[in-house]
Specification:
The chain has 358 residues and is an alpha+beta fold. 48% of the residues lie in helices and 19% in strands. The chain contains 11 helices and 9 strands. Strands 3, 4, 5, 6 and 7 form a 5-stranded antiparallel β-sheet that branches. A hairpin with a 2-residue loop joins strand 4 and strand 5 (95-108). Helix 4 packs across helix 7 (262-289).
């Protein structure tokens, strides 16, 4: 599960940052490494999220919650979703244990910040109450393995209760918190934005599904080590940067928190590198098979979108990462994939908002 979490984290940040750079296939003969299978008229199934009224309402509710104000409440007991200020003492065998006590802690009930059962144990308590909660630490407790599985009693005092006050959806709310002037205009714009996101995700998923299909259909005699090394280095370096930026820790510290070793991580990196290298070889082989060429006219027409996809604004900046020859080779591969996708038999699997929450 932890490895899967790391893989998903890597996938998301690499995709967002456009870090899946092309390697050095421009100097390689793809047919030396891969024999293509069927690539014209391949059949694939791809999810497409339907933008229903329910999904629009969910997005607008999230918007309202993001603009909620927190206000102290009195005269009622703690409810799920409340933010309580508490003092607590953790007792083990009748003795307070290190790290188990604190004062003036704000805790959202239902957030899962504390061990299972702690937050639920406060529901129904009133301001000034002291509640004793009998629990067991989880069998796997990374914060302090010495406490794993052990029984504990938390004596918790409720100092105050606060609740998030979510504003109503009115024309006045829309005017204050958005660029629109009416509820209907806000709903229409939200639906359009969600549709654009859905379309972008669909195109990305279609590309990935088609690529995976092409790789499955192909036969690889070997993979150039230079290509594997390139992508392994790219993933490894990018992860080190992103973990530091996102969490403020080194990659080794992050892996330790996840309970992973460097060897575990390198296995993940190797799988990414192999997948990316195979994808490049297949794309290049198709471009070769179809005798795709990039003229100067093609180059100029494709360049603006190509630079935009890579997050660079000028051709001069692009040249810091790749030569013009490499750019043209990458454009050949893009055209190859366009050809395959245009001829693919695509079945759309409609996914609605309810499915997203399951």
């Amino acid at each position: 599960m932890k490895k899967k979490g790391l893989i998903l984290f890597m996938c998301s940040i690499l995709a967002l940052a456009g870090a899946c750079k092309s390697g050095t296939t421009s100097g390689l003969k793809a047919s030396d490494y891969v024999t293509l299978g069927k690539y014209k008229g391949i059949e694939v199934t791809v999810d497409r999220v339907e933008i229903t009224d329910e999904l629009v309402e969910m997005a607008i509710e999230d918007h309202r919650k993001s603009n909620a104000t927190v206000e102290e409440v009195t005269g009622r007991a703690v409810m799920k979703g409340d933010i309580v200020n508490i003092d607590f003492v953790g007792m083990m065998d009748g003795v307070a244990f290190d790290g188990g006590s604190a004062q003036g802690v704000d805790l959202e009930i239902g957030s899962g910040q504390f061990i299972p059962g702690f937050e639920d144990g406060l529901i129904g308590a009133n301001i000034g109450d002291t509640v004793s909660i009998n629990l067991n630490f989880p069998e796997v407790y990374q914060n302090n393995p010495d406490l794993a599985g052990k029984p504990v009693v938390f004596n918790v005092t409720i100092n105050s209760i606060a609740a998030a006050m979510v504003p109503e959806l009115t024309d006045e709310y829309v005017k204050e918190f958005t660029e629109y002037d009416s509820v209907q205009a806000f709903k229409d714009a939200t639906k359009q934005q969600l549709q654009e996101i859905s379309d972008e995700n669909y195109e990305a998923d279609l590309m990935n599904v088609v690529l995976n299909k092409l790789i499955e259909e192909a036969t690889f005699s070997s993979i150039p080590q230079s290509l594997l090394d390139f992508h392994a280095d790219t993933y490894r370096n990018f992860m080190e940067q992103q973990v530091m930026l996102t969490y403020g820790v080194t990659l080794d510290e992050y892996l330790e928190y996840l309970g992973m070793t460097r060897d575990d991580f390198e296995q993940v990196v190797s799988r990414f590198a192999e997948g990316q290298a195979k994808a490049e070889l297949v794309e290049k082989a198709i471009a070769d098979s179809e005798k795709i060429k990039i003229s100067e006219k093609d180059y100029k027409e494709m360049l603006p979108q190509y630079m935009s996809d890579r997050g660079v604004s000028t051709e001069e900046n692009l040249r810091k990462n790749e030569t013009k020859e490499q750019t043209k080779e990458n454009m050949r591969r893009i055209k190859a994939m366009d050809l395959v996708i245009d001829q693919a038999v695509v079945t759309e699997n409609k996914v609605n908002a309810a499915d997203l929450n399951n």
